[in-house]
Design brief:
The structure holds two protein chains of two kinds. Helix content of chain A is about 65%, strand content about 5%. Chain A has one domain. Chain A is built from twelve helices and two strands. Chain B contains six helices and five strands. In chain B, about 60% of the residues lie in helices and about 20% in strands. Classes of the chains: A mainly alpha, B alpha+beta.
Chain lengths: ~260, ~200
């Protein structure tokens, strides 16, 4: 009898709690001067803002004149050709991804990425077909910028690199490390085929740009300050990549009042 | 017996939490489909399509709350009239931003994958995947319930929060006008006009 009472009590409490939830969300209130988020937002350190804005304008013009039209043309290629190029370029990045996963202590991911590289380079015809994905070996990107961050290296200040776009001191260092250690680039240079390096960089840029044509245009056409919007987007995206966390966990949750809708 | 009690509490608690998450998902799907219908009709003039989107967004986004959040510290010193004008302009800006994102829509399919209720913050997080030929875009909707209605309070596309980006962007602009919301309204009004012309033409 005592047990039945207890169960009734639990059920009653739970039914009441569901009403409490509904009521609680109604009671969410923020004061007029309360603009907090659930996690601390860091101010982006941008001491070179004036110079960065100048380079950003140059990059923006270069994008409009060259990269965007080329990326739009690339998008008109048959879908299997686009996927093939994208997969091939991604497969070339895999050896350094494995190195960075190992440096970050991600043993399981490193094994999976090695498996991806082996499967796609062989069964996937030199990486043109992503066979590995179909057998559950998902693509996970890691780079030297992320590795430095996991070793405690801070962002440093924000920089906009000519042609390469938004970055910061740490990620620029990581990018240089990638250029110096990439085995495919090293092989091309050793074989006197140095032209392959900028060709690959350009192909990567076109492939990546083709995937965000609408998003970039939406941001460009609707921003009060396009520079600040790109800077913010860059930092949010890198933060999520470094922490390898679900975006909903990491991104600050705005404590938004809805009582006066 | 203690274990059974724990299991019962655990089960019932998560059952309730899941009901909220599922209800929110169903509501969101209905609203997304309303927007998509306007894009599936090629005969609909761009002005009408935008009006449909604006109406859906005004009804379902916590536009005023987001506007207030985005304005940061300039809010408290602004007059009532300025705030009212700003909220109106911001709501249109939000609709234009989303309509602009939708311009590349070409019958891509989407799926609401998971939804969970964040008990601590009383927010439902709904994950969506949008499929195109060569890639999948991950989107997370943050939805809050108020007075038996749901409101979208943020949209996260590929790890980038729309609201946080807007706040950084507006803050950068506000710095140049000494955090004067009235000045910002002028700039916002011009930007809205330019964005609107791009969308309808």
């Amino acid at each position: 009898m005592q047990n039945i009472k207890q169960i009734f009590f639990i059920v009653f409490l739970t039914l009441v709690s569901s009403q409490i939830f509904a009521a609680a969300s109604d009671q969410v209130k923020t004061d007029s001067d309360d603009f907090e988020t659930t996690t601390v937002e860091e101010e982006i350190y941008d001491p070179l803002e004036r110079l960065n804005r100048a380079i950003f304008s140059f990059n923006n013009a270069a994008d409009k004149i060259i990269l965007e039209p080329v990326a739009k043309g690339y998008k008109k290629l048959p879908s299997p050709i686009q996927s093939g190029i994208s997969n091939f370029l991604s497969n070339l990045r895999m050896p350094l991804v494995v190195v960075n996963q190992l440096l970050q202590g991600q043993g399981k991911n490193a094994v999976e990425s090695t498996g991806r590289f082996l499967v796609n380079s062989t069964a996937g015809v030199l990486g043109l077909i992503d066979v590995a994905d179909r057998i559950g070996l998902e693509e996970k990107e890691e780079d030297f910028g992320q590795t430095l961050a996991t070793y405690g290296v801070g962002d440093g200040f924000y920089v906009v690199l000519p042609l390469f776009g938004p970055s910061n001191v740490r990620d620029t260092t990581g990018m240089i490390m990638t250029m110096l250690t990439d085995p495919v680039n090293a092989y091309a240079v050793r074989e006197d085929e140095g032209w392959l390096v900028p060709t690959r960089t350009g192909a990567n840029a076109i492939d990546q740009r083709s995937k965000i044509i609408d998003e970039v245009n939406a941001l460009r056409n609707n921003s009060l300050d396009y520079y600040a919007a790109v800077r913010s987007s860059y930092y949010q995206n890198r933060k999520a990549a470094i922490n390898n966390t679900d975006d909903d966990v990491l991104t600050p949750l705005p404590l938004i009042s809805i009582e006066f809708e | 017996m203690k274990f059974i009690k724990f299991v019962i509490i655990f089960f019932i608690f998560f059952y309730n939490v899941n009901i909220y998450a599922n209800e929110a998902s169903q509501w969101l799907k209905k609203e997304i489909d309303k927007i998509l219908i306007s894009y599936q009709n090629p005969d609909l003039p761009n002005e009408n399509r935008f009006l449909m989107i604006e109406q859906t967004i005004n009804n379902n986004f916590a536009g005023a709350g987001i506007a207030k959040f985005v304005s940061g510290k300039s809010w408290s010193s602004a007059s009532k009239e300025t705030k009212k004008e700003y909220i109106k302009l911001f709501k249109r800006h939000l609709a234009l931003s989303i309509a602009s994102l939708m311009q590349g829509y070409s019958n891509q399919e989407y799926r609401l994958t998971t939804s969970k209720f964040d008990e601590k913050n009383k927010v439902t997080l709904i994950d969506m995947e949008i499929y195109s030929d060569n890639s999948t875009i991950q989107v997370t909707w943050r939805v809050k319930q108020s007075k038996d209605r749901y409101f979208v309070i943020d949209l996260i596309v590929a790890d980038i929060s729309l609201v946080v980006t807007k706040r950084d962007e507006f803050n950068s602009m506000l710095k140049t006008v000494d955090y004067n919301l009235k000045e910002l309204n002028n700039k916002l009004s011009q930007q809205n006009e330019s964005s609107y012309n791009k969308i309808i033409n």
